[in-house]
Design goal:
The structure holds 2 protein chains of 2 kinds. By secondary structure, chain A is mainly alpha-helical. Helices cover 56% and strands 6% of the residues of chain A. Chain A contains 9 helices and 3 strands; from the N terminus they run βαββαααααααα.
Chain lengths: 239, 254
């Protein structure tokens, strides 16, 4: 039984976009999804609006949206812990770790490996090394976890935030099979109905395709996106 | 009169470290400081990885619970900031009440700094002062993205007559951005003149006693000194300090 809300989501099929839609599906919330509009001063997706205490509110940055949605809508703590508990703070630490580390660094790896107009080996090596270090950190944490999730006994916004990025590891040129606990976690998350529903919003998620694609196929896929990415970078640099 | 706490802060005078010390000083808290020897990779030692599995600064430990005997650890500067205000800022000197529109606007901007300004300006810093040779494409990618982010910030500040990022007070959003803004020159930005509202805001916060104390813990504020120097002098000062970064990258890759 899904719960109606006033949430409008502005999003796209990226690791940050699917964080939010997975969480909404995990909590069984209804949300409206108009085509992408710019209500985020930073001009990025995802972003959202909602009605809070009778006033319209905007929330941008996927990490802020994750916190907002559980704070407002997860009173039963299905994917969160009560405010002020050690587990609540630990979840926040990992959420910030994803926002400041995993996301940006794997994003840079994607850029240097797939989108940069020329192959800059130094950049590829730097970000690949960092992503592997971050995956090792996750793997070591998950090895010690009896639940197989990052914090305590349940899936939280920390897991959901990291998942979309790790799920695209092969597209970034990293083999997640090198990190057994991490790979098991990827598959554990994939079995959750909320993850399954949310990852395909607004368009199909490519996890299955990524498992069998070759380097050449990844390069060809990147070529299709390279133009708009570099155009955007150029337009901003001329300001 | 400083409020006693059981906080130990593991830190150094980097932009992320200063976020924590500024917040602690703004809140008038008493805490222990453990300056970490980054150049000797102390932050990768096993004892420290128990506190921060990611092996970075800042991180803090504190005690919780009725008897104040449950250890809590927090890592990631953004998480430290939210922890400090949610636990120690009941009067909302530098925050808004949980669940308000202003609270969520603050969190949005904090996340914008954590996911955008910090990492992007940090990469600019790497390609400007630490990379073994000059990679023009990479340096420009990150300095241009940093400039775009400062334009976004400048627009936001221009809309607020109070001169803060959110509403009528300093918040953790301002505290998270400010030390990075003060490190502009060491990250390869040529000027901040294109962002007049950001410049006004930088000066406004510099005048606050909490910022003055916090930016000089554990040692004198380093990056701000570079802003008055010529680019070549900045490069000369920064190069000897960044060898440990390349060492760290090499060790991580092994």
């Amino acid at each position: 039984m899904s719960t109606p809300t006033d949430i409008h989501i502005y999003t796209g099929q990226t690791p940050n976009g699917i964080k939010v839609t997975i969480l909404l599906e995990e909590l069984g919330l209804q949300y409206k999804e108009p085509w992408f509009l710019e209500i985020n001063p930073n001009g990025r997706i995802p972003a959202m609006t909602d009605t809070l205490n009778g006033k319209q509110i905007r929330v941008f940055e996927s990490g802020a949206m994750m916190q907002y949605i559980v704070d407002q809508y997860d009173k039963d703590h299905k994917v969160s812990y009560p405010f002020g508990t050690p587990e609540y703070y630990e979840t926040n630490s990992w959420l910030m770790w994803q926002m400041g580390g995993l996301g940006p660094m794997q994003g840079q790896l994607n850029h240097f490996k797939r989108y940069a107009p020329e192959k800059i080996q130094y950049g590829i090596n730097r970000y690949e090394g960092e992503v592997k270090r971050l995956y090792r950190t996750l793997d070591e944490t998950l090895q010690k976890s009896s639940s197989g999730y990052l914090v305590g006994d349940r899936c939280t916004v920390a897991d959901i935030s990291c998942w979309g990025w790790v799920a695209m590891a092969r597209s970034s040129g990293v083999d997640p099979q090198n990190y057994p606990a991490l790979q098991a976690w990827v598959e554990r998350m994939l079995k959750r109905p909320g993850v399954e529903k949310g990852r395909h919003v607004p368009t199909e998620h490519s996890y299955e395709k990524f498992q069998t694609m070759t380097e050449e196929e990844f390069e060809a896929r990147a070529a299709a996106n390279r133009t708009w990415i570099l155009e955007g970078q150029k337009a901003e640099s001329e300001r | 009169m400083a409020t006693q706490t059981n906080i130990t802060l593991y830190t150094e005078g980097t932009p992320n470290g200063l976020k924590a010390t500024i917040a602690l000083e703004e809140l008038g808290l008493s805490y222990k400081v453990r300056a970490m020897k980054l150049f000797e990779h102390e932050h990768k030692e096993p004892w420290y990885l128990e506190i921060n599995p990611n092996g970075r600064i800042p991180a803090l430990t504190d005690k919780e619970g009725e008897e104040e005997d449950e250890e809590v650890r927090i890592f990631e500067s953004g998480a430290l900031l939210l922890y400090l205000v949610s636990r120690y800022d009941k009067e909302h000197k530098i925050s808004y009440p949980e669940g308000t529109k202003e609270h969520w606007e603050t969190v949005s901007w904090l996340m914008w700094q954590m996911g955008g300004l910090g990492p992007m300006q940090g990469q600019a810093n790497h390609f400007f002062t630490a990379a073994p040779q000059r990679y023009e494409y990479s340096l420009h990618r990150y300095t241009n993205e940093s400039r775009r982010l400062y334009r976004v910030l400048d627009t936001q500040l221009s809309k607020n007559p109070h001169g803060y990022i959110v509403g009528d007070r300093v918040t953790v959003a301002d505290i998270a951005v400010w030390p990075w803004a003060q490190a502009w020159k060491s990250c390869g930005l040529k000027t901040m003149d294109e962002f007049p509202n950001v410049q006004k805001w930088m000066a406004k916060l510099l005048a606050r006693p909490g910022f003055e104390r916090g930016r000089n813990i554990p040692g004198p504020h380093f990056h701000i000194k570079l802003n008055e120097l010529a680019e070549e002098e900045v490069d000369k000062l920064m190069r000897p300090r960044t060898g440990w970064v390349l060492e760290g990258m090499k060790k991580d890759a092994e």
